[in-house]
Specification:
Blueprint lengths: L24 H47 L36 E2 L20 E2 L10 E7 L28 H13 L4 E5 L4 H7 L8 E3 L5 H16 L4 E4 L5 E3 L1 H15 L4 E6 L9 E8 L9 E7 L4 H10 L2 E11 H11 L1 H13 L3 H5 L1 H7 L6 H10 L4 E6 L2 E3 L4 H6 L9 E2 L6 E4 L5 E4 L5 E4 L4 E5 L4 E5 L6 H10 L7
Parallel strand pairs: 1-2, 3-4, 3-6, 4-5, 8-12, 14-16, 15-17, 16-18
Antiparallel strand pairs: 6-11, 7-13, 8-11, 9-10, 9-11, 10-12, 18-19
Helix pairs in contact: 4-7, 4-8, 4-11, 7-8, 7-11, 8-10
C-alpha cells in the first residue's frame, strides 16, 4: 500500500547558510536583535515616564506641605485650582487625579510683572502655583467663542431639542450652564469680545439669558454641522474684524470648578497661541474614563511665557477601560476637553491645508456675513454643502502629527455632564442617599442608596429598596433607568422619535 504522507523536509545543513524556511541565518539573527532593541527602547520610555511621574508627585507633595499654612486661612486673596471663588459660576467638587496627592496645593503670591501684565502660569507640575490677586484680567486681542449646540438627547427628558442642557440650571445656583460659562470667561475678554455660535431655535433663549451679549456677536449657523464648521465660522468672521485676533473655543455646557486655575490655563494658552500653535487645555484625569478622548503629552516647548506648555504627541480616541487605566498609570495623558485657543488666521490656515473645501465655504460665508439679505438667502445654501466633522478630526489630529498642536496641562475640576450618572456626581447628597435635582421635599425614600431623582412634575416620588436608579419625572414624560445605563438614554430618544412622539423630544 502506497504511503500518503508528504515527503519529509531535508535536514538543515549548517554549511549551506540557510534555514529550512529559506531565510538566511544572518537575517533571522538580525530580526531577533531588532526586536530586542525595540523592547529595550520601550522599556526605557516606560522608565522615563515613571521617573517623570515620581518627580511630579514629589514636587506637588512638597508644595502641599509648604502650603498647608496658607490653605487653612480663609481670608487669603485668591483661590487655588481646587477651590471655586464666589462668583455665580458653578461651585463643584473637583475630581482629583488618582496619581496626585489629594490636597489643596499651595499658593505663591506673585506679580505678573511689567513685561507680561496679563500673563500668569497655570498651576501644574514643577512650576510654581500662583494666584491672581489683581483686579484686571482682560487679555487684549483675545476673543471668546462659545459653541452652543446639542440635540438634548443625553439628559432627556430633562433637556429637549428646543431647550438643551446648556440652557438649564443643573446646579440649582440660579444660573444656567451657558450663563456660568459667560460669567467665567467674561474677565478675559469683556462682552464686546465674547461670541456665541448657535442654531436658529436657540437664539431667542440665549439672548434672554444673556442680555449683555451683543447682537452682532451671536453667530446663527443655519443648521448643525459639528464643531469644525461652528468654530471655523466664528474664526472666519473674527479674522475679518480683527486680523490679529486670538480666539478661544469653550463649550457652553461644561461644568468647571476652580475658576482661578481655569483662567490661568487660558491665559497661558493665549501666550502659546501667539507663537502659531493650535493650543488645547488638557485636564488631569480623575479616573480611567472610557467616555472621554485623551491627549498624550509630548516634549516641553520651553517658552518662557508659558512654562507648562508642551507639544501634543497624539490624540487618542475614547479607550476601553483597560487602555484608559494604562494611560493614567503613565502620568503622561490628559483628558481632551475640546477647549482650543489659537490665532483665528492660523486656524483658517490649518483648515485650508487639511480641509480646503470647508475652508473655501467658510470664507465665502464670512465675506457675506455683514450683508443681512445674503444671510437669509445665499449663506444657507453654502452652509448646506459644508462637511460635518469635529475640529479634532478636521485639523487637530493631522496638525499634531506635524508638531503644530500644543497643550497646557491644568488642574481645575471639569465635567461635560454627558449623562445622568455624571450629573449625579456633581450634586450634593447625604451618604448613600440619592441625589435630588429639584425640590427635595417631593422625594421620599426608604432603604435607597445612590442614584438621582428629578421631581420635575411637582408630584411626590417615593422609592423603596431600589439602588442607583435614575428617575426623571417631568410633566409630560417619565424616565426610569439605572446609572449604569444612563449613557444609553439617546437610544430611547430615537425609539420615541420612531414611534411618533417627536413632540416630546
Amino acid at each position: 500500500m502506497a504511503s500518503t504522507l508528504p515527503p519529509a523536509d531535508p535536514p538543515f545543513q549548517p554549511g549551506n547558510g540557510s534555514a529550512s524556511s529559506g531565510l538566511p541565518v544572518e537575517a533571522m539573527f538580525q530580526q531577533i536583535m531588532q526586536a530586542v532593541q525595540l523592547s529595550h527602547r520601550q522599556i526605557s520610555e516606560l522608565k522615563q515616564e515613571c521617573t517623570e511621574l515620581r518627580l511630579a508627585n514629589a514636587s506637588l507633595e512638597r508644595q502641599v506641605r509648604e502650603g498647608l499654612q496658607w490653605n487653612i486661612h480663609p481670608s487669603r486673596n485668591g483661590t487655588p485650582g481646587f477651590m471655586t471663588p464666589a462668583p455665580s459660576s458653578p461651585k463643584l467638587h473637583p475630581k482629583l487625579s488618582p496619581f496626585l496627592t489629594h490636597a489643596v496645593p499651595s499658593i505663591i503670591m506673585t506679580s505678573p510683572g511689567p513685561e507680561h501684565p496679563h500673563f500668569k502660569p497655570s498651576p501644574l507640575g514643577d512650576n510654581a502655583l500662583t494666584s491672581f490677586p489683581f483686579g484686571n484680567r482682560d487679555i487684549p486681542g483675545f476673543y471668546v467663542v462659545i459653541p452652543a449646540g446639542g440635540a438634548g438627547t443625553r439628559l432627556w427628558p430633562l433637556s429637549r431639542e428646543g431647550h438643551p442642557k446648556f440652557l438649564l440650571d443643573l446646579t440649582l445656583k440660579g444660573r444656567s450652564l451657558i450663563q456660568a460659562t459667560w460669567d467665567r470667561l467674561l474677565p478675559l475678554s469683556s462682552a464686546r469680545r465674547t461670541t456665541i455660535v448657535a442654531g436658529p431655535s436657540h437664539v431667542k433663549s440665549i439672548m434672554d439669558q444673556l442680555p449683555d451679549l451683543h447682537a452682532d456677536n451671536l453667530f446663527c449657523e443655519p443648521g448643525p454641522k459639528d464643531s469644525m464648521a461652528a468654530i471655523g465660522l466664528a474664526a472666519a468672521i473674527l479674522a475679518k474684524r480683527d486680523p490679529e485676533a486670538v480666539i478661544g473655543s469653550f463649550a457652553a455646557d461644561h461644568m468647571i470648578s476652580g475658576d482661578d486655575a481655569f483662567l490661568s490655563a487660558v491665559a497661558e494658552a493665549v501666550e502659546v497661541a501667539k507663537s502659531d500653535y493650535l493650543v488645547t487645555i488638557g485636564i488631569a484625569p480623575s479616573h480611567p474614563s472610557t467616555g472621554f478622548g485623551y491627549i498624550r503629552l509630548g516634549e516641553k516647548l520651553g517658552l518662557k511665557e508659558a512654562p507648562n506648555s508642551r507639544l501634543v504627541s497624539s490624540f487618542k480616541e475614547k479607550p476601553d477601560a483597560r487602555t484608559a487605566a494604562s494611560y493614567i498609570a503613565t502620568g503622561n495623558y490628559r483628558w481632551n476637553a475640546g477647549m482650543f485657543v489659537t490665532k483665528a488666521t492660523f486656524l483658517l490656515q490649518l483648515l485650508q491645508e487639511y480641509k480646503p473645501e470647508l475652508y473655501d465655504g467658510l470664507i465665502r460665508i464670512a465675506d457675506l456675513w455683514e450683508d443681512e439679505a445674503a444671510r437669509h438667502t445665499t449663506i444657507p445654501e453654502i452652509w448646506s454643502h459644508l462637511e460635518k466633522i469635529p475640529i479634532d478630526n478636521a485639523v487637530a489630529e493631522p496638525a499634531a502629527s506635524e508638531g503644530r498642536v500644543a497643550v497646557v496641562p491644568a488642574t481645575f475640576g471639569w465635567d461635560d455632564v454627558g449623562d445622568f450618572s455624571s450629573l449625579a456626581e456633581l450634586l450634593p447628597a447625604e451618604a448613600n442617599q440619592p441625589r435630588i435635582l429639584g425640590d427635595a421635599s417631593l422625594v421620599v425614600t426608604e432603604q435607597v442608596a445612590g442614584g438621582i431623582v428629578v421631581p420635575g412634575s411637582g408630584r411626590l416620588i417615593t422609592c423603596l429598596g431600589v439602588d442607583d436608579l435614575v428617575i426623571v419625572d417631568m410633566p409630560d414624560t417619565l424616565l426610569v433607568t439605572t446609572r449604569a445605563r444612563s449613557q444609553e438614554v439617546k437610544r430611547l430618544v430615537k425609539k420615541c422619535r420612531d414611534a411618533g412622539h417627536k413632540n416630546l423630544l
